[in-house]
Amino acid sequence: MAARRPPETGSDLLIEVRDMTKVYGTGDMAVQALRGVSLDVRRSEFVAIMGPSGSGKSTFMHLLGCLDRPTSGSYRLAGQEVSRLSADELAIVRSRQIGFVFQSFNLLARTSALENVELPMLYAGIARETRTARAKELLDSVGLGDRLDHKPSELSGGQQQRVAIARALANGVPLLMADEPTGNLDSKSSAEIMALFRRLNDQHGLTVVVVTHDMGTAAWSKRVVTFRDGRIVSDTPVAEAVPEPVRVAAEQAARAAVSPPSEGVRQEAPA
Ligand code: ADP
């Protein structure tokens, strides 16, 4: 799954951000959400973005995700300068480069797991047979091969998030961005979701960027970037940012979650 594309440029850098600023509003109402942020992320990294509420994490995530444009500064994604593209051009970049996973899953309610995963491929103009085959393959690989026809309401939270991850990967994107992906999940389902991110990162070379305020979630990453007042105040390997007991707990949960995907499904009770 998540077929890894060869780098489109000679560069190993997937994300290159330089002096990025973002100001919301104007005049007296202006809010400087980002005050000059620079960050490089190589392909196959797993980065957690942390920081207190209001520090600029979501703003940065929106900009990295090509959902919005910076006020100033540059952003090269897979070698392409994207900071001045139009909304339509950004939509094309998103569909080719980025899969999104949100706290609230954002699945279509009256639509089966299979159709939810097919949707991005439908927008991308992929033929029906290919679409269906790939959606099945993706759902199988996240342990939901036996839940294809289930609607979101017939799935547990952890299962819904796995559908959302399969959907995010539908177009074979190199970058997965997640905003508080475990915020609505119990601790067991959270561990399963983070273990899935780790597997996609370790085994499929997917680049993962996760925004979280939770140390237990950040513990699964390999690098932690911390924001404060619109700036990056630290950027370290996970071992320096997350206390050892929290990392050990994540590693134990990872080992427990390494059971075959179908087993994981059977263990999980529907909501
Ligand atoms: P975090 O995700 O770390 O909580 P945000 O990026 O949401 O931080 O917010 C950073 C700052 O920008 C905050 O002061 C917030 O109030 C402000 N902000 C965020 N979005 C908007 C917006 N759409 N309009 C005006 N101000 C905003």
Short description:
By secondary structure, this protein is of the alpha/beta class. It has ten helices and ten strands.
Strand content: 15-25%
Q: Please, what is the average pLDDT?
A: 90
**Main beta sheet, described?**
6 strands, mixed
Give, in order, the helices and strands.
Answer: EEEHEEHEHHHEHEHEEHHH
Global Rg: 18 Å
Under CATH at level 1, the class stands as Alpha Beta
Name the descriptors.
38% helix, 271 residues, 4-stranded antiparallel sheet, 6-stranded mixed sheet, Rossmann fold, alpha/beta, single chain
Element layout with pairings:
Layout: E1 13-24, E2 31-42, E3 46-50, H1 57-64, E4 72-77, E5 80-81, H2 87-97, E6 98-102, H3 113-123, H4 128-141, H5 157-168, E7 175-179, H6 187-204, E8 207-211, H7 215-218, E9 223-228, E10 231-237, H8 238-241, H9 244-256, H10 261-267
Parallel strand pairs: 3-8, 3-9, 6-7, 7-8
Antiparallel strand pairs: 1-2, 1-4, 4-5, 9-10
Helix pairs in contact: 3-4, 3-5, 4-5, 5-6
The structure holds adenosine-5'-diphosphate.
Description:
The chain has 271 residues and is α/β, with parallel strands linked by helices. Helix content is 38%, strand content 24%. The protein has ten helices and ten strands. It is globular and about 50 Å long. Adenosine-5'-diphosphate binds next to strand 2 and helix 1.
